[in-house]
Design goal:
mainly alpha; globular; A middle domain of Talin 1; 355 residues; 83% helix; two-stranded antiparallel ribbon
Length: 355
């Protein structure tokens, strides 16, 4: 039975990745035909497209009443996107960040993270909160598109794109995106069903599965997109994809999941009191790293990745109720976290004095 469930998880992930690739390719082509700039495409279309696996999984989980997976998937993915993906990209090649990108999108990511924590104080995210989150996503997307067009960087449809060729291109792009959506739906069902069954078999909670296996698995499109962008020198797209995906995860995925969930999305106390706080702290940590000097150095990338390793180790120890958990928690609270905070503060002071 365990092998069957594992096969469903792997098959679901494969379909999710294939579906995300088709969706991003088709949607990016449609956006380019609409005259959006590459940066706006990276922040919205590509970021939303690579966030489609999280959307599919969370919606499926919310609709079937597995709120722990629906919310934990978003929280875990957001932590993964910043600490692991940005960390890996910076470790490969130091990231230079555009000022316009960081001055608007990072604060919005922090605000959205804090807003979700505030909304979930009573242990639930209801339909009204979901509608407010979706309204925020619509406003953010509309502002991004308006700002991109105002700068005059959009490609815009050219004369060569006019006529039958452009219509044929739009049809192909639409069919490609639609095929991606179909694969995402099918893959999400297999992934959620397999993960829930495996969690029951191994005695692991849905919460831990959502924060680790599903969160990392559904973030693989962001990993591939951001790492490839960093490797090719498109550093603003690398960081924009990760930050844009985080904004979409909270405003879009949690928003829609709260609307389709029977009653409301329930938030586990451990998720509310620890993991969501970590998500907000990770978002805030981007401020001194990105705003001062508008860059992320290699060693800062390794620091991010090490922090994600420590967070994952804590989750596994907590799930297993291991004897080492009290010592590990005490060490993290007394030494590691204060040292990390001082390091981030030192980064800000050093970059500010050198600018």
């Amino acid at each position: 039975m365990g092998l069957t469930d594992l096969g469903m998880i792997m098959g679901g992930l494969a379909l999710l990745l294939a579906g995300a690739e088709l969706l991003v390719r088709g949607a990016s082509r449609l956006a380019a035909m609409a005259g959006l700039s590459p940066l706006v495409i990276g922040l919205t279309v590509v970021a939303y497209g690579t966030g489609a696996p999280e959307m599919a999984v969370s919606l499926q989980a919310a609709y079937t009443g597995n709120s722990d997976i629906a919310v934990a998937n978003v929280v875990g993915s957001n932590i993964f996107n910043v600490l692991f993906i940005l960390g890996m990209c910076a470790a490969i090649l130091p990231l230079k960040v555009q000022r316009q990108l960081v001055r608007m999108d990072v604060p919005i990511m922090i605000g959205a993270s804090a807003l979700l924590l505030l909304m979930a104080r009573d242990g639930r995210v209801g339909p009204l909160s979901g509608a407010l989150l979706l309204a925020g996503l619509a406003a953010y997307t509309g502002w991004s598109v308006w700002a991109g067009r105002r700068e005059g960087n959009g490609g815009g449809p050219s004369v060569a794109d006019a006529g039958r060729g452009r219509i044929r291109g739009m049809i192909i792009a639409t069919l490609t995106a639609a095929a991606g959506l179909v694969l995402l739906v099918v893959g999400s069902r297999g992934l959620v069903a397999g993960a829930v069954a495996l969690a029951r078999l191994w005695g692991v909670s849905d919460l831990v599965i959502g924060l680790t296996i599903i969160a990392a698995g559904t973030s693989l499109p962001e990993v591939a997109t951001s790492v490839l962008a960093a490797w090719r020198g498109a550093r603003d797209i690398a960081i924009g994809n990760a930050i844009g995906s985080n904004i979409f995860n909270i405003l879009g995925i949690v928003g829609i999941s709260a609307l389709v969930s029977p009653g409301a999305l329930t938030v586990a106390p451990s998720l509310l009191n620890f993991d969501m706080v970590v998500m907000v702290a990770v978002a805030v940590a981007c401020l001194p790293v990105c705003f001062t000097g508008y860059s992320i150095a290699r060693w800062e990338g390794w620091l991010f990745m090490g922090s994600y390793g420590a967070y994952t180790a804590y989750l596994l120890l907590r799930a297993a109720e291991h004897d080492a958990l009290p010592v590990f928690s005490q060490t993290m609270a007394t030494f590691v976290l204060p040292l990390l905070a001082l390091t981030v503060l030192a980064i800000a002071v050093q970059k500010r004095s050198g600018s």
